[in-house]
Specification:
Elements lengths: L4 E5 L3 H13 L2 E5 L3 H9 L16 E4 L2 H5 L4 E4 L3 H11 L8 E4 L12 H9 L6 E5 L4 H5 L4 E6 L3 H10 L5 E6 L2 H23 L4 H22 L9 H12 L4 H10 L4 H7 L7 H14 L5 H11 L4 H9 L9
Parallel strand pairs: 1-2, 1-4, 2-3, 4-5, 5-6, 7-8
Antiparallel strand pairs: 6-7
Helix pairs in contact: 4-5, 8-9, 8-10, 8-11, 8-13, 8-14, 11-12, 13-14
The chain binds 1,4-dihydronicotinamide adenine dinucleotide and 1,3-dihydroxyacetonephosphate.
The site of 1,4-dihydronicotinamide adenine dinucleotide has 24 residues, from helix 1 and helix 4.
């Protein structure tokens, strides 16, 4: 069955850009926005003035603040809200979800408290089987995709046929999705790279260059893969788009909210100052560094960079002290 109608719930920067990707690939898309002004701007000027100013949205993409209208007849429901609010959002939506629709997570985080991945939260709240939930993850900076710059991504679903249906619904001249069945690896790659991007931003704020960045990226990938191994992910996933691909894009790009947030901390700003400068947009790693750290501790996995980012964000450690502590750790073998 081909996907002809899609609901995208969450009209932030990625929700809006991904809604455009799908609409540009053929299906009708209805975008749910929390605020009237956002829905009016999309339906009137064809632009999401608050989150993607300057991007003209296609005619087969409309917006509403009425979630029932957005969900009516949708064969796929894309969840595009921040990780830490997904559960509360979904509780409000679950009774209206169309029977059998693929539920697609765009969020990159691990839930505080429960330490669950987003697909686990979706299954629990919506009461759907594992094979009805898909995850989209990869090097997907919303602004570049909105500008139709060529990008690849992965669609992870334990049901390969469902992933292929979704792949067809979001393939176009600038967006190339691959399929994969390793949902765990893709979700961990997406959540952990936000934390590593915070560390790269801190290093940049301290004035460090490319050797430091490459070292953080590579060791960040090593600790992500260690956690993945403990949780049953396929190690090769971390060499793919949802692993290395997303890690490199996020750690290197000034468009990344996480890297920018870390950069501000590295320059000496407080958490509150960096949060204010983010203008309400999410830097997921600031919260996920705590949940990922706890998950790692529960499974006996060593994640020094994640520990350090947590200490800077939540225990008042200065990024310079973190740098010195990391470089001065006990010598060890690279693959230990
Ligand atoms: N922006 C990007 O380039 C990419 C973002 N992502 C992920 O997608 C997810 C969503 O990100 P964005 O769209 O960029 O975020 P955003 O901060 O731009 O927008 C969040 C959207 O969620 C809505 N929302 C609904 N309930 C909310 C609540 N209770 N609290 C706060 N916001 C609420 C907001 O109104 C807003 O429309 C995140 O997990 C992010 O890591 C993934 C790939 C790329
Ligand atoms: O996930 C992203 C790119 O793939 C976006 O990263 P930020 O949330 O740091 O902007």
């Amino acid at each position: 069955m081909s996907v002809q109608r899609v609901a995208v719930l969450g009209a932030g920067s990625w929700g809006t850009a991904f809604a455009k990707v799908i609409a540009d690939s053929g299906p009708e898309v209805v975008l749910w926005a929390r605020r009237d002004s956002v829905a009016e701007s999309v339906n009137g000027a064809g632009i999401n003035e608050d989150y993607l100013p300057g991007t003209k949205l296609p005619a087969n993409l409309s917006a509403t603040t009425d979630v029932d209208k957005a969900l009516d007849g949708a064969q796929a429901v894309v969840l595009a809200v921040p990780s830490q609010t997904l559960r509360a959002n979904l509780v409000g939506w679950r009774d209206s979800l169309p029977e059998g629709a693929t539920l697609v997570s765009l969020a990159k985080g691990v839930e505080l408290g429960t330490l669950k991945r987003m697909s686990e939260v979706i299954r629990e709240v919506a009461g759907v089987p594992e094979d009805q939930v898909a995850v989209v993850s990869g090097p997907n900076l919303a602004k570049e995709i909105a500008a139709e710059q060529p990008t690849a991504t992965v669609i992870a679903c334990t049901d390969h046929d469902r992933a292929v249906e979704l792949q067809q619904a979001c393939s176009n001249g600038y967006f190339r999705p691959y399929t994969i069945t390793d949902v765990i690896g893709c979700e961990l790659g997406g959540a952990c790279k936000n934390v590593i991007a915070l560390a790269c931003g801190m290093a940049a704020g301290l004035g460090f260059g490319d050797n430091t960045m490459a070292s953080i990226i590579t060791r960040g990938l090593a600790e992500t893969a260690r956690l993945g191994a403990a949780l049953g992910a396929d190690p090769l996933t971390f060499a793919g788009l949802a692993g290395l691909g997303d890690l490199v894009a996020t750690c290197a790009s000034p468009l990344s909210r996480n890297r920018t947030f870390g950069h501000r901390l590295g320059l000496g700003e407080s958490l509150a100052q960096a949060q204010e400068a983010a203008h309400g947009q999410v830097a997921e790693g600031v919260k996920s560094c705590s949940s990922i750290r706890e998950l790692a501790q529960r499974h006996g996995v060593d994640m020094p960079l994640t520990d350090g980012v947590h200490m800077v964000c939540h225990d008042g450690m200065h990024p310079r002290t973190l740098g010195a502590a990391l470089i001065g750790r006990e010598p060890k073998a690279e693959r230990q």
